[in-house]
Task: structure prediction
Amino acid sequence: MWLNIKTQMKKTFISAFALVAIAFASQTQVQAQSKMSMSGGTKMVGGAAMYPTKDIIDNAVNSKDHTTLVAAVKAAGLVETLKGAGPFTVFAPTNEAFNKLPKGTVATLVKPENKAALTKILTYHVIAGKMDSKAIAAAIKKGKGKAELTTVEGGKLWAWMEGKKLVMKDEKGGMSTVTIADVYQKNGVIHVVNSVLMPK
Result:
């Protein structure tokens, strides 16, 4: 009888060990797949993964740093546009970037009667085509140190490098720095910026 108990305990221990081993193997596989996903172009923005298989809007709505931008895009009626095939390059201001604007600016802009002005500002942050950091760097080199970019709004933006930082200048002389570059999307690429860019 004692032998049977020992045999049963041994079998139970082996089964438990097998379950732990399977669980560990599964966890390791998930971690490996996660790392592969990250290395495949997925970046973290605002505490959320930005998947290159999703469009600009479907990714942006998950970023806690871009709630103001998403609200503004909705107010301007640009959701369907930025969910389109594109491709688009978007310089995406963070909530902190919008907070730098004079008090009450955002609340005023999202009012229905100011839709045209809001649309003008938002489309000034968009460039037709997919311009990642390599493409912008090539444009900067071609422009002998400074690239002139034409926005969907029709205005101009200027870009250059200051050390390892990509810096943008708007038509009013305002400056903005790219804090996260090359956030690839299904329909383009996002560059996170720390100040709102303003057209004339």
About this structure: The first strand starts at residue 43 and ends at 45. The beta strands are 43-45, 48-50, 88-93, 126-128, 147-150, 156-162, 165-169, 175-185, 188-193. The CA atoms of residues 67 and 195 lie 15 Å apart.
